[in-house]
Structure formats: structure tokens, C-alpha cells
């Protein structure tokens, strides 16, 4: 009878009880309703059948063929290629994506900043050790033609006085639209001539390294004006890395020390300069060309404890004059300039799996691999001494910011980016992003492109998104918890209003439009709505903005500095505009004679560096005031300077504002005229900051 009763109960529960529900509570497991392995073995067959029945007859292991799975790539490489649509990945992208914040800039994914807190560490690396950044997102244009034709093309787009003739060193340039100097500035560039072969060929090749912010415009300008000169974009055929810091030369010698031809001029020069204290002792623009063995063979390369001794009689000639053959591999070796051969070498090199198999077969673990000439390939590289000239786009006096602005730019063929990057990192270089590179230039007291180049389209494209983001963050705060800019008299708190400083009625269309009534809290606006005067008609957004031009370069900066040290002598009853034109006559003499002088004087900006004395840190977009309380310029970047131990800012002043500052200084005080003092107002209600003004290149 009992057995019959149990059979009846089992039959009754078989239809409405799952297999895992028949277990006692201490044997039940989570997710047992859809995973048959979570129940005992004796019930798994029944549980699997129930799961399949619940899934509509499909097996539990069968995946739903949804749209995501149909569109998903079958391999990781295919998935990476799909995700690169519309934005280029650098060869080191995956490495950076695991360690840094990535941002899409200028059509490429660029490392913005590390995920770790590295503000001070990046400064120490750039000053005392080595700072490295992957700058493969820079664009390289190849100009091919006769030397005279290429030089003529560059002369039409460069500033007067820029060296465009063939040279053995890298030459800094500032590019403009054809025939529009000093208006329509594009940005800084570096020109590198290919060593001339001795086979009688009159054609020359020049590489123009430019920032991607204006690369498309530069290609259009050069292509439309290239009579007899071929213009090609070879950016995807090269990778490049920038090294800064006192030990950058030592790190470079560590990574490139395994030269394929140790007796070459480039290899011998690198061995001699490896032990110098700072790359600043070498002339900027020096080019070092050599061919090295596969860097994966000796990986990881440890930083040299001490460089090989170099006799003073060998090092002194190098410091005085760069060796003639250091930038050339010889007439029979095209080096990095032979892009077809570089592509063949990259395709035929051993894979990482093959190198790992050779390491496994090595008798001594951790020892570098021996070179096999029949299998291994060599890598041609070019190292360019970089510094303030490349940032400014013109020759400067140098010696700025110790190691913060001096270093090397390493250029190699495509396909070798990850191998060289890992070698640099394991040799002791600290990897940083775009934000840290801009801050390193700020600590050196130098402008960075495009953040400190007002008057260019690249600057507007850089500053406008930052202004829009700052505006949205300000609007998201409650009215009682955000700064009341209207009560403080701040008309443009989110970007420097250089257009208003130069007399324009409105900012360029790319900047966010801010209604002045929105810059105060809502309750105050409601109380004043009846007493408010009739608003002035809005400016026509279609009206053209002023053509701002920047007085940049060593020559312009020297002229403006001399003008500041000269007291303006105004005659009795003389018009202020006439006195201003007479004071600015030296600057006008440096401009083309056909230029509209009245228009140029009204739209000129001069970059300045402001070092605070006393407490206080300048704020971005803050006005710069002279002694009379008149606004003469605005701050573009303000922060605390670790190099100086006080607040510092990089801004821009109008030429007429500098005239007002010069007019307000005491005529007999030569020291104040050499280092004039100004005030930096606050846009958040804090006290003003006193600072010393210095004209930048």
C-alpha cells in the first residue's frame, strides 16, 4: 500500500515539478533551472530534457542566432578591423587602450591620458628621466621634384626668412596659405630633406611633418599650387615616437644600440653622444640615420648603466658641428626613404611565434637571440633632435625649460611600431598621453599646437568643444551652486574672447553662443526682468569674423620685445592712432609691403607667458589687465607650475593692448619695461593675481 501511495504521488508531481525542485533544500544550487550540471548525476538526463523543452526544443548549448551574433566577426583581428571604421588605430592602440583613456582626435584614436594619477610623475619623467609618446598620428607629406621647385613651393607657403633650401638638418617652418602671410596661418611644421644621391639625379625628396589638425588643408593647398612637384601623403607608411627628458639620448642609444653596421657614421655618433647629460647640448634639428637589427631579438633592452666612454677629442667636434654622414646610410642604401623595400622587409620578417620558438630552444633562458642573416631583417630608422623650434615653427634661441622641451623624434617604417614601443618602455621611458605632452610644453613655458595658436582654424576646432563641454557642465549645476558670471562682470567664461578684444561683434560660429542673461541665477533674473533695458539687437552671425594673425617666431618676438622697452613718444595734440602706428612701425617693417597695415595692426595677437609673483593661480580664459585696469588679453592655459613653484599662464595680448601697457609704464624705469607687470583677473570671484609678462616666440 505504501509503495502504491508513493507511485501515485510521484506521478502527480511529475507534471508540475522540475527535476531540481525534487531535491532537498540543502542540495539545491543556484541557476539549476537552466544548467543541468547543477543537479546530481541521477537527475541530469531528466533536467536536460526539461531545459530543452523549455527552450522550445533547442539544446541548452545552442546559441540564439540573433542580429549581434550574425554581425559579429569570427576572429579578434576581424573585430578590430570592424571597430576601426572611420577612425584609424595606431599600431600601439591595444597596449594604450588597456592603460590610458582613449579619445578620437583628428581621425585617429589617440591616448589622452593614463588611467593612473601621473601628473607629477610625468613632469619628473620629462625633466629628469625620459618621457615617451606615440605620435604616429602626425601626418607626413612627401614632396618630390627638383630642389628649386620644392623650395619655391615651400617659400610660397612659409614665413619670410624661413630656411627652405636643401639642408642636412630638420628645418622648422610655419605654414600659411599661399601668398597670405601673415594672415591665414595653418600651423608649425618640420621639413626633412632626403640626402642627395651622387648618381646625377636632380630630383629631390622632402618630408613635411605636420600636425593632423590642419593636414587636410595643407594637402589641398600644396596640391593646388604644386607646379612640377608631386605631393603624397605617406602617413600610414611610418610610425613615430617622441622622447623628452635628460635621459632621452641614453634611452635612444639603448634601443638603437644593436646597429646592423657598427662602423657606420650614425652608429658611431650615437655611441659618442649616449652619455651626454641632456640633449639640449646638441643642436636642434640634427638627424641621425642608421639601420638596426630586429629589436625583438634583444628584448627586453635594459637601460645602459653608463654609456661607453667617449674621448673629449671625439665628442667636441660633434657638439660643434654635426657629422656630415650621420644622416645618410650611403648611396646604395635608401634606408627609410625606400618605402617599397621597407614594406617587403616588414612582410618577410619572422613572426612572434617563430621568435618564441627560437627562445624556447635556447640553452640559456632569458638570453637574447642570435642574429640569423638568412631569416632576420634589419630596420632603417631616423632620429631627429626635437625641441622648442618644432613647437614654435621657427628658429629660436633654444635652451628653454631644461629637458622639458628637448628630446628626440624617432621615425621608423610601418609594422615596427609595437616592437620599438615595447623596447622604449622596457628601457625606462615613461609612456604618457596627449594631455601630459601639452602640460610638458606648458612647464617649459612654450606654446603647444593647437591649444596656444589663436587665429588658426585648428585652434578654433580645439577650443570650441572644450567651451561647449564647460558650458554644459556649468548648466548642469543648480543655479545656487554655480558661479554667477554676470554678477562678476564676466562676459565669456568658457573660452577666450579674442574676437571681442580685437573689436569683432561676435565669436566664430564654431563656439557656443551664450546669452548674457543666462550667466546669472534664475531668481535674480526674474527680479530684474521689469527693470531691464531693451536689449540691443543681436550681432549678425553671418558677418565675417576678424582675420586674426599671430606674431610668432624669433624675429617677431624680438621686435615686439624691443617695442615694449621703448617708451612711446607722443607729440602734443597727436592722435592716439598715429602714436600707435609710429610705435608699431618696426613690426610693420617686417611684414610684406603690399599688406593692409591698418587691418594688420587691428587684428594682431602676441603670445605671452605670465609668471605670478606671490600667491594665486591663474584661471583659464581670465582677462589680462594693465595698470589702468584695461583688458589687454586673455589667458589660454593657467595652472600651477611645478618647474617654477608658482602660478603661471600662457595667453595672448592684442598689439594695441601691449601699446596701452607700454604707455602706462614709467618712462624712466628700464627694469619694468624689460619685465612689465600686469594683473590677471579671476572669473570665479577670487582676488586678482600679479604677474610678470614675457613675450613668447
Describe this protein's structure.
Strands 10-11-12-9-3-13 form a six-stranded mixed beta sheet. It is 32% helix and 19% strand. With 697 residues, it is α+β, with helices and mostly antiparallel strands. The longest helix has 20 residues, at 457-476.
* Apparent shape: globular
Helix share bin: 25-40%
The description of the largest β-sheet is: 6 strands, mixed
Number of strands: 20
Mean pLDDT: 86
**End-to-end C-alpha gap:** 106 Å
The low-confidence parts are: 528-544
Judged by helices, strands and strand pairing, the structural class is: alpha+beta
Please compute the radius of gyration using only Cα atoms.
32 Å
Strand content: 15-25%
What is the topology, as strand order, of the major beta sheet?
Answer: 10-11-12-9-3-13
Query: How many helices in DSSP terms?
Result: 26
Reconstruct the topology from this structure.
Layout: H1 2-14, H2 44-54, H3 67-71, H4 76-83, H5 93-97, E1 100-105, E2 108-114, H6 119-127, E3 131-134, E4 139-146, H7 147-157, E5 171-176, E6 185-193, E7 203-210, H8 215-224, E8 230-233, E9 238-244, H9 248-255, H10 265-273, E10 287-293, H11 312-320, H12 339-348, H13 352-361, E11 378-386, H14 388-392, E12 407-413, H15 417-426, E13 430-431, H16 434-443, H17 457-476, H18 485-488, H19 498-501, H20 522-527, E14 549-550, H21 554-564, H22 576-583, H23 585-589, H24 597-602, E15 604-612, E16 623-625, E17 631-641, E18 646-654, H25 655-664, H26 670-674, E19 677-680, E20 689-695
Helix pairs in contact: 6-16
